[in-house]
Amino acid sequence: MATAFTMEQSFYTDRLIAAGLDPVLPNAADRAETHRIIYEQLCRDIVTQESSATYVAIANRLAASGADSLILGCTEIGMLLNQGNVVVPVFDTTLIHCAAALDYVLTQ
């Protein structure tokens, strides 16, 4: 899950496919709603129960469609989703990048 640009343009999905993965994307309406919530709410530090429930429902639909994990492909999505409210393993790219940066700094 990410902005519409990230989900719909092939830059990211092509790399996942090249790595042997089979990305499962939200349907068009879910992509639009994910994108809207990011820009209208999360980027403005607005978190509501409604937007959280919407994201959890989208994550559940992805899992029901065959997704075996969920990539939080936008820094703000962790404000709504995490391993505690998603039924499949969650990869929070913000946390992954922070851990990698910390590992790098500590090994220099």
* Strand residues, percent: 5-15%
Report the structural category: mainly alpha
Task: Tell me which oligomeric state these chains represent.
Answer: single chain
Q: Shape from CA axes?
A: globular
For the sheet with most strands, the description reads: 2 strands, parallel
Q: Segments where pLDDT lies below 50 for 5+ residues?
A: none
Q: What is the chain-wise order of helices and strands?
A: HHHHEEH
Number of domains: 1
Q: Can you describe this structure?
A:
This protein has helices at residues 4-8, 10-18, 28-40, 49-64, 93-106, and strands at residues 70-72, 90-92. 53% of the residues lie in helices and 6% in strands. The protein has one domain (4-106): 3-Layer(aba) Sandwich (Rossmann fold), CATH 3.40.50.1860. It has a two-stranded parallel sheet with strand order 1-2. It has five helices and two strands.
Kindly summarize this structure in a few lines.
The protein has a two-stranded parallel sheet. It is globular.
